[in-house]
Amino acid sequence: MRFHCILCTRDCVDIILESLESKAAWADFVYVYDTGSTDGTWEIVQEFAKKKDARIVPFKREEVLFREGVRAYVFNAFRDNMEDGDWIVKSDEDEFYHVSPREFVSNHLKAHETAVWTQLYDFRLTCEEAQRQSDPECVARERKIPLINRRRYYLPITYSEHRLCRYRKHMKWYPSDSFPTNAGFVARARIPVRHYPHRDVEQLKHRVRLRQALLKVLPAGTYPHWRCETWEDFLVPANLPELRFWPLAWRSLTGILVFDAFAKMVETRSAVGVASLCRADLRQNAPALCFQLHPGVIARASQGGVVLKHQLGLGG
Known about the structure:
- By secondary structure, the protein is of the alpha/beta class.
- It has 13 helices and ten strands.
- The protein has helices at residues 16-24, 41-51, 70-78, 101-108, 127-132, 136-142, 147-150, 201-215, 253-267, 271-282, 286-293, 297-300, 305-312, and strands spanning 3-9, 29-34, 56-61, 87-92, 95-97, 115-123, 153-156, 162-166, 186-195, 244-245.
- The longest helix is centred in the middle third of the chain and has 15 residues, at 201-215.
């Protein structure tokens, strides 16, 4: 069982190295298709493949209009390298699997489940963070920090997208489609993916310029979520009610699946519920988790902050 990652990228010099390293940790092959980078992204991909990891396969760089079916082109170029039982994984450079596809397939699927959809967590740039980044040196300093530490505010996405499927030699993936036809039996479990479309001010400005240029030549109505008046339309206030804060203590799938229930308990001030959930599902990480989720979460969660502290073993 091998994992074949199809990675499409364009103008992501700020993140491509971290993305390649992340995907090389679980993939047997990462087929990279650059759809027209001009910022050095493609050169980094080539150097990484040549000097660091032969599992990275630079397919080609060519200026093309992005559409969902471009991955079918890559799939059909490399399908002779695939065998029945291998797994195909879709990914972009700004997506990071919080649980690796290899681990997810091995530990969280039933034998008959052969296609996997996502639970996406969309990390956003806040107005306050953007204001701090008015100094270009601030952006340069931040880019040296791993993304999981750099961008922490996110929105849980309520829709799901297909990402993995088990390969069959007679499988068809047509250029008009975003995923193979009859990809397989969809798994009940969803694989958690951290998505970082807005990483800093400079990257966001460039992303908007590029997408606005593409929208001028794409059919009307294409990608409505790309449309905006200015890049600032994509900023979010840190006090947005639905915005959440990613706690670094959560490294496991259990933590991800528990997250929404935990947040709801905090919002409804169920101190005992929060304590019970943390103790049962997150064990030794619970104290750190509580403090990292929101400063002052103990006080906010309680009619009984003392009860919560006691149940978490924090004293008081």
